[in-house]
Amino acid sequence: MSVIDQKKILRKEMLLKRSKLLNPEKKKYDEWVCHSLWNSIKTHQSKKVHCYLPMGSEIDITPLIDKMLTHGITVVTPKTLPKRRLQHLVLASLNQLEKGVFGTSYPANATEYFGSYDLIIVPGLSFNKANYRLGYGGGYYDNFMEQHSNSKKIGICYPFQIVEKIPLETHDLQLDEILVNSEFLEL
Ligand SMILES: Nc1nc2c(c(=O)[nH]1)N(C=O)[C@@H](CNc1ccc(C(=O)N[C@@H](CCC(=O)O)C(=O)O)cc1)CN2
Ligand SMILES: Nc1ncnc2c1ncn2[C@@H]1O[C@H](COP(=O)(O)OP(=O)(O)OP(=O)(O)O)[C@@H](O)[C@H]1O
Question: What CATH topology corresponds to 3-128+135-179?
Fold first, then answer.
């Protein structure tokens, strides 16, 4: 089977598993992720953070986003464009979002950001222990992360999303760290 087909199968499996997560366990896990990331941001004194605006059953990092905004951290989020391109917009408030393509949202009337990042919080459907990642299949994040080789890139996920083998193509990039907590056994 081709790598592309193997990726498709793994995506489907992970989307299905993730869609079955229920509160309060999911909420508890997501809060743990937010706390851990916030600790890391404080420890490293991160001032410029890139993160996703959660959709569907993705880890809900909105409490973290609010906290970062309250503390004056520059929060930049992607707007999805055609052909593996993202535009990066400064987020002023979670109350001013517009709907984009593929179920994504993006900051309304925002300025584009061209600077560097101390931290990039990376969403994903699956990861392996060598810090490789599988996304939704748009090829967006590999292209973006390649342009920010010096930024710290942390992938976040539920324990079941860690797999032995991620089907890899040459453009797939390695992250610096995967944040996961396997003590939440039911997830
Ligand atoms: N919240 C969030 N924003 C993000 C990403 C992400 O993973 N999460 N991306 C990371 O790269 C980029 C968007 N990439 C995407 C690429 C393809 C599809 C896509 O094909 N979606 C399918 C349905 C998938 C599903 O069922 O959830 C579709 O709409 O047909 C979605 C997003 C940028 N913004
Ligand atoms: N840099 C690239 N050069 C050529 N083709 C690419 C590149 N990036 C992605 N592609 C093509 O797009 C397809 C999807 O890419 P990939 O599987 O890496 O996406 P993903 O990381 O799962 O998605 P996303 O980052 O949007 O969440 C690949 O199978 C490949 O054919």
Answer: Rossmann fold (3.40.50)
